[in-house]
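Q: My labmate handed me this sequence with no annotations at all. I'd like to see what the chain might look like in three dimensions before we decide whether it's worth expressing. Could you predict it?
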Amino acid sequence: MTSAPRRSPGGERGDLFDPECPTRRLLDRIGTKWLSMAVKVLAEASPEEVRFAELRRRMPGVSQKMLSVTLQGMARDGLVGRRVEPSVPPRVYYRLTPLGLSLEEPLAAVRSWAERHMAEIDRANRRSDEAAVGD
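A: Here is what I predict for the chain of 135 residues:
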């Protein structure tokens, strides 16, 4: 039995301070750069599948272990489908599910926001670092 979303004392939906808040639970799952990159690569290929090795090649800096853990979590959450071709070595393919594909739009909005504002954030960091040196 699923319960209705908890409401905060003010009556609005969700409460980021509540560990059971749907938004907080989602951010815990999708708030990594590797998941965001995997969604982007798989969305660009959709509806085609992408081999594990190709995913790793298109995600600079990701280790085999981290990509494997990321994809396992995404599969568990229903964001990707996985297909293994029985060969030696086995060929493993991934594709976004409709649920995973629906995540591309909000993640693209975050990437767009970052592209517009990271220079501003970097400037604020430099000012803060310079002020800390003077303390």
